[in-house]
Design brief:
Order of helices and strands: HHEEEEEEHEH
Strand order of the largest sheet: 1-3-4-7-5
Shape: elongated
Structural class: alpha+beta
Strand content: 15-25%
Oligomer: single chain
Largest sheet: 5 strands, mixed, barrel
Helix content: 25-40%
Number of helices: 4
Distance between the termini: 16 Å
Length: 246
Amino acid sequence: MPRVLLRFWIVTVATAFTMAVTASLGLWQLDRAAQKLAMQAQINERSGLPAWTNAELLGAEDPKAGVHRPVDLLGEWVPQASVFLDNRQMNTRVGFFLVTPLRLAGGDGVVLVQRGWVARDFTDRGRVPAIATPPGPVRVQGRLAPPPGRLYELGEASTGPIRQNIDLAAFARETGLPLLDVSVQQSGEASDGLLREWPRVALDVSKHHGYAFQWFALCALAGILYVWFQILSPRRKRKTHGTDAR
């Protein structure tokens, strides 16, 4: 096979492979965007449903199926099991998330409540803020949420009142509480000194559209360069210099 023809087929196969891969990656990003749009629609739908009470939450076969749904719960705090999660942000400020188990009335279930955010004392990193936890029956309104997100942690997990992360299964074993495998993000005014301006749950779809555009642009560029250098440019050279110019 002549070298010119061999080079032509090598470039053709390489270009076809490049276009196939970049087009597939672009379609994959569009599929990821569609999945997130469907998830966002589900979140929005659940957020508009009637609030679960103790009976619905305790009676649910899989409480995680109700994540993002409003809740209106009655119970009693378990203040001795309160934990301050460190390095948590709200409105760009760094402080603590206070989480406290709530023993639900009418059953033996306990749910971990993300009660809100509070600033920390940076002059004494071992000091925890004084937050009032009312005794007796309380009403907690909010939304069902996944457990607090995990942050990168060096070394072994702490078991004191200040922690970087909290694992529900390990915390249940530590405290002996029958914790549900979901949490509650409490809503309402900051009457107890805790800020509850939780960020709106919104999935970022635009980045997937941006990535898809980049992959499709690379696919188109590969095709354009192939047509120019393998077809149009040699044709122009043949017209200018004769059929042997290629």
